[in-house]
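Standup notes, protein team

Yesterday: finished cleaning the Mycolicibacterium vanbaalenii set.
Today: Iron-sulfur cluster binding protein structure.
Blockers: none.

Input for Iron-sulfur cluster binding protein:
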Amino acid sequence: MTERIHPTFQAAARAALGDSVLRRNLAHATGIIRDKRARVVGELDNWEELRLAAEAIKDSALHRLDEHLQSFEAKATAAGATVHWARDAEEANRIVVDLVREQGASEVVKVKSMATQEIELNEALAAAGIAAWETDLAELIVQLGDDWPSHILVPAIHRNRAEVREIFLREMGKVGRAAPEDLTDDPRRLAEAARLHLREKFLRARVAVSGANFAIADTGSLVVVESEGNGRMCLTLPDTLISVVGIEKVLPSWRDLEVLLQVLPRSSTGERENPYTSIWTGPAGGDGPQNVHIVLLDNGRTQVLADAKGRAALRCIRCSACLNVCPVYERTGGHSYGSVYPGPIGAVLTPQLRGTASDVDKSLPFASSLCGACFDVCPVRIDIPSMLVHLRTRVVDENRGGVPSAEQLAMKAAGWVFADHRRLEAVEKAAGAGGKALRSNLFGGKQTLRSLPWPAGAWSGARDAPVPPAESFRAWWDRTDGGTRE
């Protein structure tokens, strides 16, 4: 994948809004997933109770995370797995590269994993001369297209079938079995081409890399849920399995899966249960991988845990329900967020994991209308709107001082006006006089202003500014004695 320099969310979103094909692809796909989720959730009378239970389970895990991680390590080690600890992306990548080299392998097959995308593992493996093959259909599309994932669940959601066909025809033959020359954009034909292309890689690979949806503390088990079966192939055929797992994925007990495996598939794919659930606890004699390694990844998670107002983001189970209901995501797509985690959850998780030093990360907390739809659908009840406000405050506080921006100057001016009622009354009178003039026949009886002069022009660039009222509420109150003399 080629290196990309990301603009701020606002700049990227402005470009995305002009892409009619992208907007049509997003609206179609998110609409389908949204409707499926609503149907299967509506079947349950106790959905809200399940959400509360899932929230409590994840909070319990986070409040005693150190204990649960130590328990997980002990149980996984006792079962024959080797557990590694990685402070950051660099350390995690080094561990994985060394493990692959130990096996004398020049390639790996991969299960879809947000954690490995977060640490840019594919790029690290490529730099070490190791090819990493994505086996999830959507991830394969993204990889072959030298693209970037744009959705947590459906990374290639921004592509339509015709585009996928062109990518397969153009790129598959360069890295393996070519797509058939008579390939059409029929979904069955596209899936068949991917299946045949990947099969030789599955059968040849000696090392697989996965993530995990959950890690069970009291058994040392890892859990992967998926819909295609490619994960099952990666988790069972190679001799060596390396799993990169965020430390927040741990659950206290086996019983906790009862709740999480009900809310996750309904919230993500709109299914009552996912087609494939793979659970393993170390290696099994003569069956499946015989070398099992687990890399427990921090990479900023402990600093998120330390923030009492922000730590709830670590509850996230990567279902993507918040993306599918977000009006901002639906119109701008995942690439606008400049992160492997797009949408509402990305807007709160990424700035906490990476910090707010860059312009991209500073812009993410403002990538929302604060409508609240994300909280309504979140299966673990992450209050994303409140967290966005918290992060906006942090961004503003961290950037006080220096040369003020136009927005800061406007806020200072507004604060000065509102600090004294006499100043406010003077502004209201001036605005009322302007409103009367604009509504007069002299100015054509205007009700709205198409644009405002600089610096207010930035605000009116995306909306019509109303003509100020001819009379303020305060003036009306004084004139009518509170409405008694109307």
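Follow-up from PR in the comments: The CA atoms of residues 48 and 437 lie 54 Å apart.
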